[in-house]
Write a structure and sequence with these properties.
Blueprint (H helix, E strand, L loop, with lengths): L2 H12 L7 H13 L7 H16 L1 H11 L10 H16 L5 H15 L4 H10 L12 H4 L16
Helix pairs in contact: 1-3, 2-3, 4-5, 5-6, 5-7, 6-7
Length: 161
């Protein structure tokens, strides 16, 4: 299963977290996969369930982190789609070191656009920007910001007095 399809399945299950207890949600997982609406190989199903459980285990912590980075927004005002995308993405940004930050954020924006209202992608992008260190913002070359002094070009070296 491709990464975007994987994330979409995690999203669809995690979306239910606002409507069900963790226990109820986990009881619904087998029904979700057995509904006949989609075919998922056992390895992918296990990956999806593992990611879902991991996010659910850290949900209170993730929600606090999101709330702490909101500007001029109360957490309860965030739409359920946007909240779900943010929860997934914050978890991924903090645990998945193999995927470039720009890819993780772009996938989040695409999910928000697909399932959310107009402006959902922009909102998600704005909130997620607060989770990315300034030297690792999408569109910047992290390697350029960490060059040793000897590797900097003449234009980058400080002027001598």
């Amino acid at each position: 299963m491709k990464q975007r399809a994987f994330k979409e399945q995690v999203f669809k299950l995690l979306f239910r977290a606002d409507f069900n207890t963790k226990e109820e949600l986990l009881e619904q997982v087998p029904i979700y996969f057995e509904s006949g609406d989609l075919t998922v190989v056992p390895e992918d199903r296990a990956r999806i369930e593992e990611r879902l459980r991991a996010i659910l285990d850290r949900l209170p912590e993730i929600d606090q982190q999101i709330a702490g980075r909101l500007k001029n927004w109360r957490p309860e005002r965030i739409g359920k789609v946007e909240r779900t995308v943010l929860r997934m993405t914050v978890y991924e940004l903090q645990t998945d070191t193999g995927t470039p930050t720009a890819v993780v954020i772009n996938d989040a924006i695409e999910l928000a656009r697909k399932f959310g209202q107009d402006g959902a992608g922009q909102f998600v992008n704005g909130v997620l920007a607060a989770f990315v260190p300034s030297n690792n913002k999408p569109g910047t070359d992290k390697a350029d910001t960490e060059k040793p002094e000897t590797e900097k070009s003449e234009t980058e070296k400080p002027e001598k007095s």
